[in-house]
Amino acid sequence: MKNRLMSLEERLLLKKRPMIEAINDILTLGF
């Protein structure tokens, strides 16, 4: 159970990171 939660959290982080990077790219291009 604990391992499953860790993997889910890691998956969320992996999904969030590209979005944050994309937002940063858009902001840098916008300014």
Structural class: mainly alpha
Task: Tally the helices.
Answer: 1
Radius of gyration: 14 Å
Spans where pLDDT lies below 50 across 5 or more residues: none
The count of domains is 1
Nearest-integer average pLDDT:
80
Distance N to C terminus: 45 Å
Tell me the series of helices and strands, N- to C-terminal: H
Largest sheet: none
Choose one word for the global shape: rod-shaped
Q: What is the β-strand count?
A: 0
The amount of helix comes to over 70%
**Estimated share of beta-strand residues:** under 5%
Describe it:
With 31 residues, this protein is an all-alpha fold. It has one domain. 94% of the residues lie in helices and 0% in strands. The protein has one helix and no strands. The longest helix has 29 residues, at 2-30.
